[in-house]
Amino acid sequence: MKEAAELKDPTDHYHAQPLEDNLFEWHFTVRGPPDSDFDGGIYHGRIVLPPEYPMKPPSIILLTANGRFEVGKKICLSISGHHPETWQPSWSIRTALLAIIGFMPTKGEGAIGSLDYTPEERRALAKKSQDFCCEACGISMKEALLPLTSESSSSQADKEAKELARQISFKAEVSSSKKSIAESSNTSGLNHSATLPEPTQDNIDRAFQDLATSAMSENQNNSATANHEHAQPVSSNTSMSPRQRRAHQQSQRRAPSSTDFNRVQQPRVNTSHTGSTVLIVLLTLALAALIFRRIYLANERIFEL
To answer: Residues annotated as region Disordered (predicted)?
Structure first.
């Protein structure tokens, strides 16, 4: 209500008032910025305020064809509902009106609700906009704004609109940079997850099967090596004569020397235990990779929302 009282009287550049039956829907009229393709145009539109206003930004919808913003669609500006991260509660409807004027000469760059008409088409639409009359509020563009009589006042409003557009664009760039840095930091330790398959049950079973197969192969190799080492003395015994074999057996029955005793006391590597340890480590790494993958997907959904 305070803003409605402040904007009750139209100026030569903008005017806005809420509808009689809905305080959250305003109709506005702005004059096209001078020295641009929109010079001479008078454009009408709607501003829809959320219930949380001014803590959340409004939605802006143009009703007059202009060649810069689509008609009847919520446009994407740094001061509109598409970018709540750049909105400031200290801004007002007057700020939004000046931002629309300041953003009109800028490039659309593929934003939602943006158009890139040729300068000739925009000048033709600017001239045609003066004959527009809103059916909802009954305002005619020829009577919506005060005529341009004061060069100083018009120049001041135009400068204020341009400066506001620069400030809002700068805030949007800073916010976008912070978001990009946050996304990079969240994914810096999870780059390997991009090569992982989707964490479906089939992929999990296949991964566990591959790990088990590799572990079993390693156990078989270790067992073969150990059997080969134990088989060497037996093969050496086959080349002995019967007398030498009996002498060798008698020497083995004797008490072991200190060197043999130390050799016997040395611990042997348990190949089966080593294989189990390798399997456990590989399974733990696979589970950790899947958990990181789910965290990464959850972060992507949060950023999209």
So the answer is: 175-201, 216-269
Contact between 87 and 51 under an 8 Å Cβ cutoff? The reply is no
Q: Give per-residue pLDDT as tens, 139-155.
A: 999 999 998 875 545 56
Q: What's the CA gap between 297 and 197, in Å, rounded?
A: 12
Q: Which of 76, 133, 134, 137 is catalytic?
A: 76
76 in active site? yes
User: Contact at 8 Å (CB) between 141 and 131?
Assistant: yes
Within 13 Å, how many C-alpha atoms sit on residue 112's CB side?
Answer: 14
Dump pLDDT digits (tens) for 240-254. 666 666 766 766 665
Cα–Cα distance, 70 to 61 (Å, whole number): 8
Query: Which stretches does DSSP call E strand in the chain?
Result: 14-19, 22-31, 42-48, 59-62
d(CA 35, CA 292): 55
Which pair of structure tokens corresponds to residue 67?
């060649």
Among residues 121, 146, 125, which one has the least CA distance to residue 29? 146
d(CA 155, CA 267): 93
Q: Amino acid letter at 107?
A: K
CB distance 48 to 61 below 8 Å: yes
- pLDDT value, residue 51: 93
- C-alpha–C-alpha distance, residues 208 and 205, integer Å: 5
Among 101, 78, 91, which Cα is nearest to 3's?
A: 91
Q: What is the pLDDT of residue 152?
A: 46
In the block, residue with structure tokens 């993958």: 293
- pTM for this structure? 0.55
Domain spans in the chain, listed from the N-terminal domain onward: 2-173, 183-223+270-305
